[in-house]
Amino acid sequence: MTSLRPVRGTHDLVGEDLRRQRHVIETARQIAERYGYQEVSTPIFEFAEVFARPLGETSDVVSKEMYVFTDRGGDQLALRPEYTAAMCRAFISGAFGQALPVKLFGAGPMFRYERPQKGRLRQFHQIDIEVLGAAEPLADVEVIALGARILQALGVADEVALELNSLGDPVSRQAYRSALVAYLADHRANLSADSQTRLERNPLRVLDSKDEGDRAIVAEAPLLDTYFNEESQAFFAEVKAGLHALGIAFTVNPKLVRGLDYYTHTTFEFTTTALGAQGTVLAGGRYDGLIGMLGGPQTPGIGWAAGIERLAMLLATAPESARPVVVVPVGPASELAALALAEELRAAGHVVDYGFRGKVGQRLKRAAQQGARYALLLGEDELARGEVVVRDLEQGAQEAVPRSSLAARLAG
Ligand code: ATP
Ligand code: MG
Q1: Tell me: the pLDDT tens digits for 70-107?
Q2: By Cβ atoms counted within 10 A, which residue in 60, 83, 132, 302 is the most buried?
Q3: Same domain, 72 and 117
Q4: Rounded to the nearest whole angstrom, what is the distance from the C-alpha of residue 260 to the centroid of ligand 2?
Q5: Ligand 1 atom at minimum distance from 119 CA
Q6: Residue 388 to residue 351: CA distance in whole angstroms
Q7: Ligand 1 within 6 A of 311 CB?
Q8: CB 144 within 8 A of CB 268
């Protein structure tokens, strides 16, 4: 029965995989908090328009990847494919009050209908950072620094490199776009079919085409920064100076672009060679036009999203799960007392497993399977003496310990 399998590109997360993902989220949450970012969790589904309008009908996400459905009330809804538009919608809805800038952190599942492969799923997870209402280049610097610090705290900083670029302001960008279209039109016949379509709809995207033939053409294309006006140059210079001041290494990649019109100025990516084709772990940029395009007041924004699965794969070691203590009643008469002991230890902060059934031998076997360090055996004799038998499951030794010194014994 197919319906008993998880849907292609989705997983039941347990054990080490889940612990890795939780470690990524907890680390990011702590550092985001230290930077003064407030956590927000937006709904898993929204009106489809929230994503369709800003991302555009021609973007891959909207045209091919978005999970869209009509609900029972006839509304067109979409499973959240990314955080940025959702957070901007929440901002426009008045979720964060009026004081700008607003600094946001989020972590949660995203949904895209893609071909599943290593590091590419249909339900995946992102951590996300957004700053709304700050037009200053130092906001770009802070947002990138926050990403870099999270990668450092995860111990993956050596595995990734920061690439940086600027698209300039809308005026510079428009001037460049015209020059690029003119250049690409001359080479139209030699472009890949995909890039011919991009040329019509989204010419900047041709710059990051993976096709060999396209790359050769792109190598000779006019460069974005030669079309920068003074303001765009100054903005980019300040971002670079800020990163230098904070000791954050980067390389400028003039081909790093975002195709969507509401992106301006800074774009950046942290990439790795350790994950094969899915090399981008964290990607972001400035989107000063987005909130206005969604129908809100013109408000600048900058942020990034990072793939939790990809980060989890980069972690050198998986966080350990806590090893339980197992309480084992010896004989039916001490079952209730054993359960009460388990409760008492849990209240004192210990991780305690209680197995419900089986003889002592079977319970000890389960304890070993659980990775328990100690089994606490409690029979009528121990009860009468106010003791518990502590069995060290690693050493095999056991000793009777008075209840009053049990906590100290387990801590040691
Ligand atoms: P890619 O080029 O890998 O398709 P993207 O440009 O679509 O990425 P963004 O929308 O910028 O990605 O999302 C930010 C990050 O989320 C990516 O850098 C990646 O780490 C992660 N990500 C995106 N799509 C997926 C997916 N289908 N499965 C797992 N992680 C993903
Ligand atoms: Mg994608």
Answers
A1: 999 999 999 999 999 999 999 999 999 879 999 999 99
A2: 302
A3: yes
A4: 14
A5: 29
A6: 17
A7: no
A8: yes
